[in-house]
C-alpha cells in the first residue's frame, strides 16, 4: 500500500465516523419528551419468558405498580418451555394479585422468543402493544409514558430507553457504558430520521399497524432481532416520521448486566448473528463505519507495538473517536443520571474497539447458545 493511501484511508474512515456520531448526537438533542396523558386506550404488555424464576416476580410486581388504570392494561406472559419454576411463579402471582389482568400462556409446538411474541399477539386485546423482558423492571409511569409518545406523535412504533441496574464493580460499569452507547445510538438515529436499532426490552407499537404489515415482519428464520426487524418493517411501511423514541425517565426500563465475560460475549454474538439479514442501507452503512473505525483503532495499536510511528496514529485516532463519541454518550449519561461513568469513557474506548472487532469478525461462525438452547452452531 502506498504512503498516500496509508494516510487517506484512515482519514476517510475517521471523517465518516465523526460525521455519523455528529448526526446521532444531533438526533438525540432533537428528541422530545413524554407529554401528559389521559389514559383511554387499552394496552397489552407482552413478556416472553424462559427460565426466569429468579427475575419474573420483580418484573410482574413492577407492572402491577403501574400508574395506569388497571382496567386499561393486561399483561400476557408466554412461557417458552422453562425448565425451572418460572410458570409456577407466574401462576402464584396471578392468585395473589387478582386485580391485575395477568394471563399465562405456554408454548406448544413452536419455541423461541419470536414464536412466543407471535402467540401473545394472537391473544392481545390492546390497541397498543408494549414488550419487555422477564428479567427487567419498569418504572411506575412506563405504560403511560410509552403510550403518550405514540398518541402525541401519531407513531406506530416507539422505542424506549433501557439501562442497567446493579452496576457495582468495573466489569459491570464497563458493560453499562457500552450498553448506553448502543441505546443512545438507537435513540439518536430515530431522532435523526434514520432508525438503526431498538431494544425489545422496551418498545411498543400499534397492533393495527402490526397486522397491516406484509410478510414475515419478525424474520422468524433469524436467531435474534425480533425488535429491530419489526421496527424496520414499520419503517418500510409507514416512514421514519412514524417511528419515535420515548426520551423521558418515566419510560426507563432496568435490566441486569451479564454475570461473566463468557455470558457477555455469547450475548453479543447472538445479537451480531442477525446482521447478515439486514437490508436497510443506512443500517448497513452505519454498522460498516463503526466496524472500520474500531478495526482501525485496533490495527494502529497493534502496529504501534512494532512500529513506533503507528502509536502516534493510535493516540490521534483514539482522541478523535473519543471526542466524536462524547456528546452522545454524555447526553445519555446525564439522562440516566449515571455521571460516575464519565471517567470510564477514555479507558473503555480501546477495550470496546477490541471486542467489537472480534465479535464482528466471528459473529457469523461462532456457536450461539441461549439459556441452554443451541441457536446456531456448536
Automatic annotation (TrEMBL):
Molecular function, one GO term: glycosyltransferase activity
Keyword Glycosyltransferase: yes
Keywords: Glycosyltransferase, Membrane, Transferase, Transmembrane, Transmembrane helix
Keyword match Thylakoid: no
Transmembrane segments: 6-25, 283-306, 312-333, 340-366
Classification via InterPro entries: Glyco_trans_2-like, Nucleotide-diphossugar_trans
Domain Glycosyltransferase 2-like positions: 44-173
Signal peptide segment: none
Family assignment from sequence similarity: Belongs to the glycosyltransferase 2 family.
Protein name: Glycosyltransferase
Species of the source: Lentimicrobium saccharophilum
Amino acid at each position: 500500500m502506498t504512503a498516500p493511501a496509508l494516510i487517506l484511508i484512515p482519514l476517510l474512515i475517521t471523517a465518516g465516523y465523526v460525521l455519523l456520531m455528529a448526526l446521532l448526537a444531533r438526533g438525540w438533542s432533537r428528541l422530545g419528551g413524554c407529554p401528559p396523558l389521559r389514559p383511554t386506550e387499552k394496552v397489552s404488555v407482552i413478556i416472553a419468558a424462559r427460565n426466569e424464576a429468579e427475575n419474573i416476580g420483580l418484573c410482574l410486581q413492577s407492572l402491577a405498580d403501574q400508574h395506569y388504570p388497571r382496567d386499561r392494561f393486561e399483561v400476557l406472559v408466554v412461557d417458552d418451555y422453562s425448565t425451572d419454576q418460572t410458570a409456577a411463579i407466574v401462576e402464584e402471582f396471578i392468585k395473589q394479585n387478582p386485580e391485575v389482568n395477568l394471563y399465562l400462556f405456554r408454548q406448544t409446538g413452536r419455541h423461541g422468543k419470536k414464536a412466543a411474541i407471535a402467540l401473545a399477539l394472537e391473544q392481545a386485546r390492546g390497541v397498543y402493544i408494549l414488550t419487555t423482558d422477564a428479567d427487567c423492571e419498569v418504572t411506575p409511569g412506563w405504560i403511560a409514558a410509552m403510550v403518550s409518545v405514540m398518541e402525541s406523535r401519531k407513531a406506530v412504533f416507539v422505542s424506549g430507553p433501557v439501562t442497567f441496574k446493579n452496576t457495582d464493580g468495573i466489569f459491570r460499569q464497563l458493560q453499562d457504558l457500552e450498553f448506553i452507547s448502543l441505546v443512545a445510538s438507537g435513540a439518536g438515529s430515530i431522532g435523526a430520521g434514520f432508525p438503526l436499532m431498538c431494544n425489545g426490552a422496551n418498545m411498543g407499537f400499534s397492533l393495527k399497524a402490526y397486522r397491516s404489515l406484509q410478510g414475515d415482519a419478525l424474520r422468524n428464520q433469524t436467531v435474534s432481532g425480533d425488535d429491530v426487524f419489526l421496527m424496520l418493517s414499520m419503517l418500510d411501511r409507514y416512514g421514519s416520521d412514524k417511528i419515535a423514541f420515548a426520551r423521558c425517565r418515566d419510560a426507563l426500563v432496568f435490566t441486569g448486566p451479564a454475570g461473566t465475560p463468557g455470558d457477555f460475549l455469547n450475548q453479543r454474538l447472538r445479537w451480531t448473528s442477525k446482521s447478515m439479514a439486514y437490508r436497510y442501507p443506512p443500517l448497513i452503512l452505519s454498522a460498516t463505519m463503526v466496524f472500520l473505525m474500531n478495526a482501525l483503532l485496533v490495527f494502529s495499536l497493534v502496529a504501534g507495538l512494532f512500529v513506533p510511528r503507528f502509536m502516534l496514529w493510535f493516540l490521534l485516532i483514539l482522541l478523535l473517536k473519543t471526542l466524536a463519541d462524547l456528546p452522545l454518550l454524555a447526553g445519555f449519561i446525564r439522562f440516566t443520571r449515571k455521571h460516575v461513568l464519565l471517567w470510564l469513557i477514555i479507558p473503555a474506548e480501546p477495550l470496546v474497539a477490541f471486542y467489537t472487532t472480534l465479535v464482528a469478525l466471528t459473529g457469523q461462525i461462532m456457536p450461539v447458545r441461549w439459556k441452554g438452547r443451541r441457536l446456531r452452531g456448536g
